[in-house]
Amino acid sequence: MVNITTVDLFQLARSLSYATGLFNLANTNNETVNLLSYNDTFKNDIIGPDATVTLLSNQPYDAFHEAGVYSSATNASYISSNFGGLPYENNRINVTVYNFTDDSVSSIRYPNVAAANGATLMTSPACSSPETNGLQPNHQYVLWADEGDFEIPSGLVAVDSATGEDIQILTSFHGRNFSSANDVRQHPITGDIWFTDAQYGYFQDFRAEPVIPSQVYRFEPDTGVVQAVADGFEEANGIEFSPDLKTVYVTDTGAVMFDYNTTRPMSITAFDISEDGKGLVNRRLFATADSGVPDGIHTDTMGNVYASCGNGDGLHVWNPQGVLIGKFLVQPGDGAGTNNFEFIPGGILIFNGDRLWRVDNILAEGREVQKEWGTEAQR
């Protein structure tokens, strides 16, 4: 069973030492994931009475960093590792494969993927062909946001998880290459691809100086249209839809550049999707993290918003109104804590650098679980 600590909100509002004590809970035990409940809905509606925590894997490097996409073709989740530092050729980002059949962990690379980061499960348009967008029609791919390097341009790469075939489907915005494509989602109705572009390849010395702002884009894989739909970010990072598909959430990790400065953005911005489904309107601040920077982001079917907060104390959960209701406390592993996570049927995989945690028997269900695992997904 998991350990849940109930937060006294009045104490938290009035006592800095109490707040420090809560933060320190994340560093008291590296053998489990502890929980903080800021609201009873976290305990009662998201976690439930039977949740458990298991350490699935502990690797000698930062194997578990970003992405997290399940492919039924291989019964495995695809996770990107972290950049290991210079020299680049010796510490490149790989794709970590966690196989649910035998709990094995392996590492692979794809020829056209330089630095895999965020990813999503994509179904190609019916009109697809190798002569147009390079894809097979009505086929499932793991779509990677590839940060690129000095040889391979940044962009979007579709990978057939069963065969390993990888196809670059987007590498420029009208001739200007992206800086470091970061995260990506496919709209389940229109099929459009929404993605973010940050600058972390430049900050980590494996990409050239950016020539384009950090923005949010929408790409139509059936027509080739690519459109910038939001700007004004320091570092546009994670992206996610609300379960009703009316809202887009974008994390801004601007606090992390060449240095770490908490006076820069560590926030989540919300937008409404325009009536024609092609733009973003009504920009507003949704939440600011109290510890770390919101990075990878997902929603559950109840509309709650989850974000892994790198350089912080773990995975944070806000209700649809932007009120913090709970945390999964994760001690920093061989890296910066947790930068992303993945919903699975009845649970969550938390990426903790060198460690992979599994929280099982929770009540919440991720927005994309049915899409990835099928309508008969078992808890």
> In angstroms, what separates the terminal alpha carbons?
17 Å
The gross shape turns out to be globular
Number of separate helices = 5
Largest sheet: 6 strands, mixed
Given the helix and strand composition, which structural class is it?
mainly beta
The percentage of residues in β strands lies in 35-45%
| Range of helix content | under 10%
Quaternary state of the chains: single chain
Q: If you had to describe this structure to a student in words, what would you say it looks like?
A:
The model has no long low-confidence stretch (mean pLDDT 94). The protein is globular, with a radius of gyration of 19 Å. The longest helix has 9 residues, at 16-24. A hairpin with a 5-residue loop joins strand 6 and strand 7 (105-108). It starts with a strand and ends in a 6-residue tail after the last helix. It is 8% helix and 40% strand. By secondary structure, it is mostly beta strands. The protein has a six-stranded mixed sheet, with helices on one face. The protein has a four-stranded antiparallel sheet with strand order 3-26-25-24, with no helix packed on it. A four-stranded antiparallel sheet has the order 4-5-6-7, with no helix packed on it.
